[in-house]
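Narrative of accomplishments. A recurring question from our advisory board has been how the design workflow behaves on a single, concrete structure rather than in aggregate. To address it, we present the structure tokens for one chain from the evaluation set, followed by the sequence designed for it. No filtering or post-editing was applied between the two.
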């Protein structure tokens, strides 16, 4: 008389349900034999019902084991209820022990349907049980006793259906919570896998860019080295300020390539490694302003003392002065850019002064950030002052921006150097 919830395939639970169903059918046969002949129908009728129930149980078992599913739940529950009520009617009605099968039918229906209609099904079974009591009870049983038994069992069947529904819904909520947790774990795992794949692709892309950069650097080294050697040879054979400037800029380009190559090979920081050598400040300033594209009439260089020589990284200092001078020239119109260099104790002081529009107090703290470009000038990436700030920090120095009296800006570098 029982059947479990529909599942995709048979398993241990299906075998238990089949065994219970067969046991219930067998108990009905035993009940027919043990029941007082005075209160039951003839054995032929009762055993005909047992035979029908047994055949029904076998068909459900074969369907479950062969296909993994059976008839619709409502059909199974209805058939179970009808067979159980017929057994009650044929074995004494109100005094029949077959009434014990009805709670099993109600519980099985609640497990199959998982809906709140289990109480309605139990109420219908209880009403049908009341009719079975009236029809199948012995003549010695009063109508009041029959009605009382029917109402009593109806109440308990509804109570059983209600509790079964509560338990099923609670188990369903727990199952859903476990399923959601599992789905979250799967989603997180998938996210980790996707992130790992993305990181791998980014690393491959970065490696490809580095490889391309190394190829370009390799191809640039030969012509730059040749240009540097030719400039030095020409300077030695026929000293000339213009040739000196070309030599200085060629050496600066060589230093830039060396620093870029180091970054590409070691994947280090953007400023590269320090390469110190002795350098004359006047020559360095001339090369830096020429490299920034300033014509001679816009250059104003003051070095104290005039023949000062320091030991530093000329490539870095060249970049710093060149970036500051280029930035000053961009905003100064036709006004000259003034560069002042001096040794003050153990520091090299560099000031780049312009007569541009200057900066407000708020802007002074922003222009050294990456990709920040103020004003209406086009074609700037907002990296010049950031590069100067990074280089200054790497050399243990300080960069100060301040308003210039009379208008303009003063960029002051204080860098520790050796004589």
């Amino acid at each position: 008389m029982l059947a479990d919830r529909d599942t995709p395939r048979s398993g241990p639970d299906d075998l238990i349900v089949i065994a219970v169903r067969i046991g219930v059918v067998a108990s009905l046969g035993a009940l027919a034999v043990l029941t007082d002949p005075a209160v039951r129908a003839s054995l032929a009728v009762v055993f005909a019902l047992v035979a029908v129930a047994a055949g029904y149980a076998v068909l459900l078992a074969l369907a479950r084991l062969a296909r993994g599913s059976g008839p619709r739940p409502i059909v199974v529950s209805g058939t179970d209820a009808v067979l159980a009520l017929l057994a009650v009617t044929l074995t004494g009605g109100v005094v029949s022990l077959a009434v014990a099968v009805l709670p099993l039918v109600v519980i099985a229906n609640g497990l199959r349907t998982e809906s709140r209609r289990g109480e309605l099904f139990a109420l219908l079974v209880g009403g049908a049980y009341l009719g079975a009591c009236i029809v199948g009870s012995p003549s010695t049983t009063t109508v009041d006793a029959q009605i009382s038994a029917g109402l009593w069992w109806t109440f308990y069947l509804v109570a059983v259906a209600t509790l079964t529904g509560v338990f099923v819904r609670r188990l369903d909520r727990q199952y859903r919570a476990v399923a959601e947790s599992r789905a979250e774990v799967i989603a997180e795992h998938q996210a980790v896998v996707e992130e790992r794949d993305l990181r791998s692709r980014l690393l491959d892309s970065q490696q490809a860019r580095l490889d391309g950069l190394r190829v370009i650097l390799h191809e640039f080294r030969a012509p730059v080295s040749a240009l540097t050697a030719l400039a030095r040879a020409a300077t030695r054979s026929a000293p000339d300020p213009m040739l000196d400037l070309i030599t200085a800029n060629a050496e600066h380009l060589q230093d830039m390539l060396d620093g870029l190559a180091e970054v590409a090979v070691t994947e280090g920081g953007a400023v590269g490694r320090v390469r110190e050598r002795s350098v004359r400040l006047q020559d360095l300033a001339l090369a830096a302003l020429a490299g920034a594209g300033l014509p001679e009439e816009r250059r104003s260089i003051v070095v104290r003392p005039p023949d000062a020589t320091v030991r530093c990284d000329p490539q870095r200092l060249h970049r710093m002065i060149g970036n500051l001078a280029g930035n000053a020239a961009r905003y100064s119109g036709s006004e000259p850019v003034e560069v002042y260099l001096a040794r003050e104790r153990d520091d090299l002081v560099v000031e780049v002064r312009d007569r541009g529009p200057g900066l407000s107090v708020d802007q002074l703290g922003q222009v050294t950030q990456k990709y920040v470009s103020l004003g209406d000038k086009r074609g700037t990436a907002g990296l010049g002052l950031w590069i100067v700030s990074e280089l200054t920090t790497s050399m243990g120095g300080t960069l100060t921006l301040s308003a210039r009296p009379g208008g303009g800006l003063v960029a002051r570098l204080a860098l520790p150097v050796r004589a």
